[in-house]
Design goal:
Elements: H1 16-38, H2 43-50, H3 77-89, E1 98-101, E2 106-111, H4 112-115, H5 125-138, E3 143-151, H6 156-172, E4 180-185, E5 195-204
Helix pairs in contact: 5-6
């Protein structure tokens, strides 16, 4: 007589509703995580709950954090040229300054005879006041500004010191902190060789 193998045991099947329930729980959990991530903490409500004694959690600190940089938008060069013309017209101490509009920049040339005594790197009082008003205009701009002292008729060191003096006068009026101060050799042409140039570029200051 031939003996037959017993039939395999029936596999236990999971209820179909359990799979659907697991999916729903996962979706609900994901929803609350997204809601928490997009929410902002109400400081006053937090203090009321904690009795005003607990402090808010501080963000994690690292040796090298990437800071948030807020840059002011740069002003159009053509519009800025009109503003500078109006400002210079109101400053007799800068009457000999020359404003030149290029395709990608504005160059305001300040002859040293208007701003410095011969061989000196300290601004005259009248020129310092005029630059203070000019700095007030530049303070409302987001453009890159470079202050360039022309070397050649004067030493490189004196040209750089004069450019730094002009930049400091502009900074005292609230002008952009990222002024680029430099000296250049061979800056001449039809303009006075002994001068300080303010070069205003269309890009935003860093």
């Amino acid at each position: 007589m031939v003996e037959l193998d017993p039939p395999p045991a029936a596999q236990h099947a999971e209820p179909a509703w359990l799979l659907a329930f697991t999916d729903v729980v996962s979706l609900v959990l994901t929803f609350f995580i997204l809601m928490f991530a997009m929410s902002t903490l109400d400081v006053e409500a937090w203090r009321r709950v904690t009795g005003g004694e607990a402090t808010l959690p501080t963000p994690p600190m690292a040796d090298r954090n990437i800071a948030t940089v807020h840059r002011r938008a740069a002003v159009d060069i053509d519009y800025l040229n009109v503003l500078l013309q109006g400002t210079l017209a109101k400053q007799p101490a800068l009457a000999g300054a020359k404003l030149e509009l290029g395709h990608d920049r504005i160059v305001l040339s300040l002859p040293s005879r208007l701003t410095f005594a011969p061989g000196a790197s300290t601004l005259d009082a009248a020129a310092g006041e005029a630059l203070f008003h000019l700095g007030g205009l530049l303070a409302n701009l987001g453009n890159r500004v470079a202050v360039v002292g022309a070397a050649g008729p004067v030493s490189f060191e004196l040209a750089l010191a004069r450019a730094a003096a002009v930049a400091n006068a502009l900074r005292r009026a609230g002008a952009v902190r990222s002024l680029e101060v430099k000296a250049a050799i061979g800056v001449g042409g039809a303009l006075p060789a002994d001068r300080v140039d303010l070069v205003i570029l269309p890009g935003a200051a860093s």
